[in-house]
Amino acid sequence: MADDLLELSREAASRRAFLRSSALAGGGLVLGLVLPAASRAAQAAPVAAPVFNPLAEPGAFSPNAYVRVSADDQVTLVVDKSEMGQGVMTALPMLLAEEMDADWPRVHLLQAGADDAYKNPLLGMQATGGSTSVRSSWLPLRRAGATARAMLVQAAAQRWQVDAAACSVSAGVVHGPGGRQARFGELAADAARLPVPKDVRLKDPKDFRLVGQPLARVDIPEKTTGQAVFGLDMQVPDMLIASVAQPPAFGATVRGFDDAAARAMPGVHSVHRTSDGVAVLAKDFWSARKGRDALKIDWDLGPNAALDDAGIMDMFRKAGEQPGAVAWKVGEGEAAVAPAAAAPGAKTLQAEYTLPFLAHATMEPMNCTAFVQKDRVDIWGPTQAQTMNQLVAGKITGLPPQAVHVHTTLLGGGFGRRFEQDFVAQAVELSKASGRPVKVVWTREDDTRHDFYRPANLHRLRAVLDGEGKLQAWTHQIVGPSIFSRVFPQYVKDGVDDTSVQGAIKLPYAMPNAQTRYVLCNTPVPVGFWRSVGHSITAFTVESFMDELAHAAGADPYRFRRDLLVHGDQRALATLDVAAREAGWGQPLPAGHFHGIAMHESFGSYVTEVAEVSVDPKGQIRVHRVTCAVDCGQVVNPDIVTAQIQSAVVYGLTAALYDRIDLQQGGVVQGNFDKYRMLRMDSAPRVDVHILPSGEAPGGLGEPGTPPIGPAVANAVFAATGKRLRELPLRPELLKT
User: Fold this and answer.
1) Which of 109, 315, 367, 607 counts the most CB atoms within 10 A of its CB?
2) What's domain 2-215's architecture?
């Protein structure tokens, strides 16, 4: 499957964006929303298009997204991003409605189908991830709203024979001189006959009425009442359920199998060998699962049958004997270490940090429904990568991508896992083999043991402080697998995978000499994008080592960082100051409580977190409170910002305190939540979020809150115990060594 994904990713990267248009038809106004893409054609102004539902007519004209004004005053936005809890179904229409001055209760949404026209310009394909949803839509959606508004105003002005400048708009109504009024729906047909303006004026942020307001999430009512449709909720007529037995070790294959007992079980329809295992199809999940349990499979465990954790670390240490490729250099880089260390009163510090493989553990396990017919494929499922869905289905069926119709459901968590295509490929393969619609459903154990894991890593850092405790030199060697080498190898340049070094290069701290090297060391364990990707790894090492330097210098950890930021990144400095102030840094804490601090920039946003922690005599770590300061640029909805930061903290705490993927006999030890723990409500801290006002363009939000929490807690544990923990998770037994 990895080789197939590699081939598909190359194809996705090479496909060109395109823009199609057609003439006016019908009695409404539809604007084709143009998202910025690589081609100049896609930078053109919105064009008039006929009124229709693109989901109901998948072969019809399909620009990147749609703004539709209908005669009943409804404004409809076709959303091209996947909703996985991050709030795009609320934030994106807010951008449109703001510039349009639409009546918010009358703004409705449609989920986009799959097409090159929906390509995310920051990802190069139709996909949701990398904290890009608002960033990629900020200007295009506002321009679309402003264009629609201008055309509706012009239509009203012509009707009333007045100057358009004499008209105003509020809540979906155009107001003219003498008390004249006209609703959007009344003007839609006339507006659609007007030429589309090439240039429209966007609002000054000081005039925003919706953007910046804590509007209620539009997806919450259906989710709380159980009406929302997730992938597991899909029901298709004549559908079969599939349960797939997958290899017990990485690289294992099927020698043969006996399916007699499985076929004899009630409810079982058929048994099929797949590209990655053996599947049982049945009338319901329980029958499929029981049938799978009855299979007798002869597995060839292959070359990785003896792989374990020690073997992985041995690979890293051997690879780390090489210096690696230079990813970042400031001043004299590592050449400055020896002279700086030789200066009178200088201190040299070095440390080694290790991080484990991690699973995504989405609350909704992997699933997908597919129906392969002679001339088309339909896919229903929780996906982050519609373009890749089309390509993988096309490869399996031999049909062109445009014959593959993706119906995106809500996602019960994504975190990068649903960018992958293994669960989609299974559904397509089995539907093709059976001639029926098939829903593949994974168990929690399937999900944990057959993931694309966050890479394990080995980090070696070294730094020199002068006699006054000032940082003079910094070096960082990273040894670990490359995600891009599997998925997008064209982006591994000169031996450096940017996802492996992000957060360890271009640091916001002012450093006279610094150098980061990367040693690419792939292992048999498949790796993939995990919430905040490399930042979740490098933030722990960089910010923990920064704390080590502060203590070696005899400085307060907050003040030490502040001194490096005064002449560094001012946005980072602002979050540092706000988090420290709001947490009461330096002020008395309850007995046995201690503070730790960490700051990190990722995806265009800056987050500093202060963790208030206690450690009991048995070494159990309890996080009581986390104070967060975030500068994510222009805020669309502060409630979404708060929720995303809180979510990111909980996700990061789970990894920091509990989780690791252990390997034994070439496979994963952990299966369910008994051994791969989640942070539970009774252990969750209070999380206070302070949003800094910012005139910058929107930054990412779904991921930046995760990286700082691990080092903030580790630094607080050091303050509490005097023991420096240099590996994750932060287990009680580590405090006893």
Assistant:
1) 607
2) 2-Layer Sandwich (3.30)
Lowest mean pLDDT of 58-72, 210-224, 324-338, name the range: 58-72
Report the pLDDT averaged over residues 351-362: 98
Strand partners, 605: 602
- Strand 686-691 to 621-631 pairing: parallel
Which ranges in 101-219 belong to alpha helices (H)? 133-160, 184-192
Contacts of 228 (CB under 8 A, 6+ apart): 219, 222, 410
Report the candidate in 452, 385, 375 with the shortest Cα–Cα distance to residue 417: 452
HSE toward the beta carbon, residue 331, CA cutoff 13 A: 16
Q: What is the CATH number of domain 310-357+453-736?
A: 3.30.365.10
pLDDT in tens, 269-302: 999 999 999 999 999 999 999 999 999 999 999 9
Tell me the C-alpha distance between 662 and 476, whole Å.
26
Is 24 strand, coil or helix?
coil
DSSP H helices in 239-363: 260-263, 285-294, 309-319, 337-342
Distance in angstroms (rounded) separating the CA atoms of residues 507 and 569: 9
Domain ranges of the chain: 2-215, 231-302+366-441, 310-357+453-736
pLDDT at 2 over 80: no
> What's the rounded mean pLDDT across residues 392-415?
97
Report the pLDDT value the prediction gives residue 31, as an integer from 0 to 100: 56
Spatial distance between the Cα atoms of 535 and 512, rounded to a whole number of angstroms: 23
Q: Regarding beta strands 621-631 and 605-615, do their DSSP bridges make them parallel or antiparallel, or are they unpaired?
A: antiparallel
Helix, strand or coil, per DSSP, at residue 653: helix
Residue 344, number of CB atoms within 10 A of its CB: 6
Domains 2-215 and 310-357+453-736 share a fold: yes
Give the three-class secondary structure for 569. coil
Rounded mean pLDDT, 646-664: 98
Lowest mean pLDDT among 28-42, 85-99, 625-639: 28-42
HSE-CB for 117 with a 13 A CA cutoff: 22
Is pLDDT of 32 > 70? no
For domain 231-302+366-441, the question of CATH label 3.30.365.10 is answered with yes
Neighbouring CB atoms inside 10 A of 146's CB total 21
Tokens of 732: 């009680």
Mean pLDDT of the 70-90 span: 91
Whole-number Å distance between alpha carbons of 558 and 577: 8
Tokens of 165: 């400048």
H/E element, 395? helix 386-397
Task: Look at residue 113 in the predicted model and tell me its pLDDT.
Answer: 85
Collapsing DSSP to helix, strand or coil, 498 comes out as: helix
Token pair recorded at residue 675: 């051994």
Q: What's the alpha-carbon Rg for the chain, to the nearest Å?
A: 27
Element (H, E) at 570: helix 570-583
CA dihedral 420, 218, 407, 392 (to 10 degrees): -10
Taking CA atoms, 667 is separated from 5, 385, 479, 521, in Å, by 21, 27, 22, 19
Average pLDDT taken over every residue of the chain = 91
pLDDT at 35 over 50: no
Please state, in angstroms and as integers, the Cα–Cα distance from residue 292 to each residue in 249, 258, 711, following that order. 18, 11, 43
Q: How many helices (H) and strands (E) does the chain have?
A: 19, 29
